[in-house]
Amino acid sequence: MIELENIVKSYNGEAVLHGVNLKIEDGEFVSVMGASGSGKSTLLNVAGGFIKPDSGIVLWDKENISSFSPSRAARFRCTRMGFVFQNFRLISTLTAEENILLPCLLSGRDMLKTKAYIGELCERLSLCGMLSKYPENLSGGQQQRVAIVRALAYSPSAVILDEPTGALDSAMQQRVMELFRDVNAQRGTTVVQVTHSAAMAAYGGRIVHIKDGAICG
């Protein structure tokens, strides 16, 4: 279970999140909808332990990750969550395959089983012929798909997605969202996405709206 309790976050004196409370049960697929500037990306980064709130706490299975040091938070993410960033954050000096495998190596997963699963994911997202390429030789949509496979590759208990289909055409958006829906249903993976798209949000089992840094439904 992921719980955000009374989260407040400001930048340069300007409040971005105003006492946000949100509880996500294990195995849920939750879509957080909001316009640009609503605070939804900040909310995800706080939930994933990438940034600390000014006040409030973030609990993963009752463990307060908002109190973790940066190194401890990084270790926690390597074993518990996958994350898809808006800007993908692929490592430019690694091939697509190496980018995908890196968190798997850090998490200590069985690489034989992991590579078989990665092959399935790449086939579903039409990446099999691109794994030897470096990020600079991939389109934005291809980079986003690599980031998605990287997030799912080691079967984390939860995946956190920041506009995971923003660089994709409509056909690939559908394939990606069907993949997330299958991972949620078949593997019990908790899925949390932020999106401005009602069509993408509808793949979730619950939709939460954020406006001006506050949850409003």
Q: Which characteristics define this entry?
A:
217 residues; alpha/beta; Rossmann fold; 6-stranded mixed β-sheet; 4-stranded antiparallel β-sheet; 7 helices; 10 strands; globular
CATH superfamily: P-loop containing nucleotide triphosphate hydrolases
Task: Compute the number of helices.
Answer: 7
Ranges with pLDDT <50 over ≥5 residues? Answer: none
Question: Quick one: overall form?
Answer: globular
SSE order in H/E notation?
EEEHEEHEHHHEHEHEE
Tell me the span between the first and last alpha carbons: 19 Å
Strand content: 25-35%
Number of domains: 1
Rg of Cα set = 17 Å
Biggest sheet: strand arrangement: 6-7-8-3-9-10
Average pLDDT, rounded to a whole number, is 94
**Main beta-sheet strand count, sense and barrel state:** 6 strands, mixed
CATH architecture, by name, is 3-Layer(aba) Sandwich
Please, could you describe this protein's structure?
This protein is α/β, with parallel strands linked by helices. It has one domain (28-41, 73-215): P-loop containing nucleotide triphosphate hydrolases (Rossmann fold). Helices cover 37% and strands 26% of the residues. It contains 7 helices and 10 strands. The strands form 2 sheets. A 6-stranded mixed beta sheet has the order 6-7-8-3-9-10, with helices on both faces. It has a 4-stranded antiparallel beta sheet with strand order 2-1-4-5, with helices on one face. Helix 3 (96-107) runs antiparallel to helix 4. The longest helix is centred in the last third of the chain and has 18 residues, at 170-187. The protein is globular. The mean pLDDT is 94.
